[in-house]
Write a structure and sequence with these properties.
Blueprint lengths: L14 H5 L22 E7 L10 H4 L1 H10 L1 E6 L6 H10 L5 E5 L3 H8 L6 H8 L9 H6 L10 E4 L4 H6 L6 E6 H6 L8 H14 L2 E2 L2 E2 L3 E2 L7 H6 L6 E3 L5 E3 L6 H13 L12 H9 L5 E5 L4 H10 L5 E4 L12 E2 L6 E4 L7 H12 L1 H9 L6 E5 L2 E4 L1 H6 L5 H5 L13 E3 L8 H12 L1 E2 L16 H20 L5 H17 L3 H23 L2
Helix pairs in contact: 12-21, 13-14, 20-21
Amino acid sequence: MKKVGRAVCGALACTLLVTGFTACKKSSKGNSGDKWKAADGVTVDWFINMSQWDSSPDLWNTAEVLKEVVEKTGVKPNVTIPTGSGLEKVNLMMATGDMPDMMTFLSGEQQIDQMVKNNAIYPLEELINKYCPEMKSEIPDSVWTYGAQPIDGVLYGLPGWLKADWQMEEKDDLNTCTFLVRSDIYEELGKPDMSTPDGFYNALVKFKEKYPEINGKKTVPLCLYPQFWSAGYLQKAFGIHDFYIDENDNYYEYWKDPKYEEFLKYMVKLNKAGLTDPEAFVKKQDQVEEDLSQGLSFVVLWKFDGLTSVNKALQKSYPNVRYKAIEPMNAYGQKTYLTDVVRKGWTTTFIPRGSKHPEECLKFMRYMWSPEGNRLMDYGKEGRDWVRIDDHTIQQTDEYAKRSKEENFMKETGIFSYRLFHYQYDKVLPAPNVEQNVEDREDRPLANESASTDYMYLSLMRSIDPNSDEGVIQTQANTVIEKARAKFLTAKDENTAISEYRKMIDDVYALGYDKVDKIKSEYHKEAKARQAELDSKK
């Protein structure tokens, strides 16, 4: 996500975010005449607990915008990224008390809750009140609410990629999950109506009949990715969410939804007709995407922005052809929502109590979170890389558009690299001589319309402690479920699918899963009540 640099975003939510950035308390360590200066030259240790993070720590020594951040704040990060899971390293840090100055985690990491329980990290408000009181008003109420840890409702760090208020209001960039079709064959088949189960099925059959093979390779009419990852998008066409809430407000997993067996019967129909990939549970993602690159599928259920490389490869053999979004199928004549938006952000960066430089880290974070810091990290320098159009909109320059295509653009500039405090303040227009890409023009609006905000309160719902009795049961149950899915999702007769599905439920509850249901229902009702309380104060 950190490298996403799309051209069109949205409008500014709160005027105070533009105007409210004032100086922090005077610090003996910094220059009080410069509101961003946190120190006169301090190196802070920054632990990023994401082994997949591929922005080099050395960029802070070489990249243009990162060096500017260091100059403005007086703080230079010394970044550490673990190899593999950082669990053992973090546990050792807590056991020894040898903590870094700043830490970044994926927002849903259970280790954050563990550190909260151990009083190992500062509540953000505690540091703000001590070092930088003005900063409190610079953080929107929605960030204080949805960026908080559900375990206690306290904001411990600044989130990255938490949706801005205006994005929620305007449905901007809330979803990229879509039903996609191979554009040339969709036209060739007469743009069939695929909005109903029968229409969807019939279009897949027509493709299979006309193209049993392409270039000597067997086709896969419907691609659901490895292990049928994206079967969840198809089940949402049957009104099945990622969860099931009964009439008494009890919370269950999606597979307890009474409509699930109807979805399974439809899967059997697709499997029996040879419309899905029988090797889906043995193929790797790169194999699936190689098939797509050769145009072997008619329909793929996936994120439209996740097929960029696939479409580029496809166009080498089929110019101007791509997998394009269409309206998703709906089984009951109601709108299909492919995503229930949860407003938590992608990452959270916080300051542990063992930090040697809590004040400097806070002020560094303040700059990175600010509109100025965000624009520098996301879009570069004003005047050269972007210009202000109005209070809510900026536009990239032609010079920027040209530079951004260069191979070493990110390494040389640092733009798009350390976007761990990203917050979308502005609408962003492409450069004057750059046409908005077809995905943003056509696919993104369809995807955004398939996002539901009806269950936003689930952002406030606590997670089960994996070390608790319920957590252990849930882990055991997940193993049972994964094995069973491979059987009932690929079955070619209804009796097998339904019997394997029901057996899975029996096996899961034999583990004591009713305890998991009970605690999740409690957490669900608690989150809903918290949301109602917050709404009453608006």
